[in-house]
Amino acid sequence: MFETLKNAWKIPDLRKRMKFTLLMLVIYRLGAVIPVPGIDRTVVESMFQGTAGGLLDFFNMMSGGAFKDFTIFALNIYPYITASIILQLLMIAIPKLEAIFKAEDGREKMAQWTRYVTVILALIQATAYSVGFFNSAIIEKSFLSIATVIIVLTAGTAFLMWLGELITEKGIGNGISLLIMIGIVSQYPRDFGTIFYQFQLGQVNLLEIIVFLIFAFFIIVGVIAIQQGERRIPVQYAKRVVGRKMYGGQSTHIPMKVLMAGVMPVIFASTLLAIPQTLAFFFPSMAPGVQKYFSIAQSPGIYIYSLLNVLLIIFFTYFYTAVQFNPFEYSNTLKENGGFIPGIRPGRPTAEYLNRVLNRITIAGAVALAIIASIPTMVFSFTNLNINFGGTSLLIVTGVALETMKQIEAQMIMRHYKGFLK
Questions:
Q1: What is the pLDDT of residues 237-252, one digit of tens each?
Q2: What would be the CATH architecture of the domain defined by 2-421?
Q3: With pLDDT > 70 as the criterion, what percentage of the chain qualifies?
Q4: What are the backbone dihedrals phi and psi of residue 235, each rounded to the nearest 5 degrees, phi first?
Q5: How distant, in Å, are the alpha carbons of 12, 162, 197, 205, 334 from that of 271?
Q6: How far from the centroid of its chain's Cα atoms is residue 73's Cα?
Q7: Which of 76, 138, 219, 416 sits 20 to 30 Å CA-CA off 306?
Q8: What is the largest CA-CA distance in the chain?
Q9: Residues 263 and 28 sit within 8 Å (Cβ to Cβ)
C-alpha cells in the first residue's frame, strides 16, 4: 500500500489530486472544531455523561466528535446519505422517475435532486435538535437564537455535501465516504486513550483488550478478503472483418466482484438504524424506549440492533448491486460487440446466466459483510471497554481505505505507469 502511494506521488496529476484531497480533509477537520454560536458547552457535555454505547455516542462516532462538541458539522453528512437512499428507492418504485434519472442528463438531475432533499432533511434534523433534545443547551431561548442554530447546522451539512462532491470530482476516492472515514478515524486516538486509562484503573483486563485486538484484526482481514474476491466469467469475441482489418477473436473475462456494493450497505444500514434515534430528538419522551431497544450498550437493544443491522446490510447489498450491475443491459452490450460466454447463447440466456451467478456471489458477500459488521459489535458490548466504535466503524474505515487505494491503482494503470506495473 505504501509503495503504491509512493509511486502515485511521483505522477504530477495524481500528486495534485492527492494534495487537493488532503487539503479538503484538513478543512473538514478544522470545521469540526468550530462551535455553534449560542450553545452552553457544559450542558451538552452533561448530556453525554454515562451514555457509552448509547444513541448519543453513535452520532458522535460517525460525525468525528462534531456532535458531542456541537460544532457546525454536528449533523455531518448523514442527511445526504439518507437523501440518496430515499431517491434510489423511489427510482425503483416509480418507473417515470427511473426514466428521468436514466436519461442523458440523468446523473446531473439525480445529483441536483439529492442536494435539494439533503438540505430539507438537514433543516428538519437541525430543527429537531434545536427545539427538542438540545434546547436546554441553547443559552438564549429567543426565536433568533434558535433560528441561528438551525441555519448554522443546515449550512454545515450543505458545506460538507459540497466538499464531498468536490473531492470526488477533483481529488482521489469517493468524497462522501472519505469524510465519514476521516471522521471515524479522528476518534481513534481518544478511544485508545480511554482503553489505556481504563486498564490503568483496573476497569478492564488484559484478556478483554486482547479479544478486542483479535476481532479488530479479523475485521480488517475479512473486509480485504471479500472486497478482493471475484468470480471471473470467460468471454469470447467472434472474429469480424471491417474493411481490410480483422477484429475480435480474443478471449477475456467479466470480473464479477463478490461485494460490488463495497461498504455502502453498512453506511446505509447505519443511517437507517439512526432514524429512531433521530426521532428521539424530536420527541424526548421516546428516548428511554429508543435507548432500551436500539442501544448496543444493553439488552435487548444489542440483539434487536444486531438483527436489524444484518437484515438491512443484506438488503442494501442486493439493492446497491442491482443499481451497479444490470445483467440484461450487460448482455445486450456484449451481444452488440460480438461477445459471448462459451456454452451460453447470446441475449436473454446470457442475461439469465449472469443473473444467477450474480445472485449466488452476492448472497455470499452480503452474509459475510453482515457477520463482519455485527458479531464484533456484540462481542465488544459484553466487555467493559468504554469505546465508541465496534465492527461497523472498523469495517467502514477498512472498506473505504481499500476502495480509495483501488482507485489510485486504477488511475496509475490508466496512465501506464511502469513503476506500478512491474
A1: 776 655 566 555 677 8
A2: Orthogonal Bundle (1.10)
A3: 84
A4: -130, 135
A5: 37, 20, 31, 33, 37
A6: 17
A7: 76
A8: 82
A9: no
